[in-house]
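Project standup — Tuesday

K.O.: blocked on the structure for the chain from last sprint. Re-posting the sequence here as requested.
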Amino acid sequence: MIKVEIIKGNKISGKLLNFINMQRKKDFEENNDFIKKDHKDTLFFIIKADGEVVSFGLLRNIKINYHKKNYYVKGIGGILSVKKKKGFGKILMKAMTNYLKETNQTGIGFCGSFVTPFYKKSGMKIKNNSITKFFYIDPKTKKEFLGDDPECDMIYIEGRDKFVSKILRTKERIQIPIPHW
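H.V.: unblocked you, prediction finished:
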């Protein structure tokens, strides 16, 4: 039996968070763990089959200041299927896109162009080579990150704020408050 769970970050168990971090390291060689205190308002989407976690992802609250106005978007991230080629990723993305559409919120994520077709089939809109519109400045080193990989696409669901439409109308780059979500 397939079950979709949405767990707020302040309610996620240490065991489940450790499992997620372990899988991210295994699949993506990811070095930065999700830390509970950084994700207390994040929504973790967990797909289980017969009680076993088979896929997960998250929607993280992100505040972006654009043209002197704050926009509150959901950062789409941490997408991973533990069991591949079984349709669990599709179930996960359907749950996440349905949530964004039902709540009329903007969701934004980034992915390599090689996986863009998966997200498109999952109902996401795509803007190719668009990570170059975004940048992050490390507060310690003042070094700029992100917008240097033209092979990275933006995946998104447009919410009532029409944030994505607004930013795509200009060539202006947008500073984001965290490097990865």
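K.O.: great, moving the ticket to review. The two ends are 30 Å apart (CA to CA). The mean pLDDT is 92.
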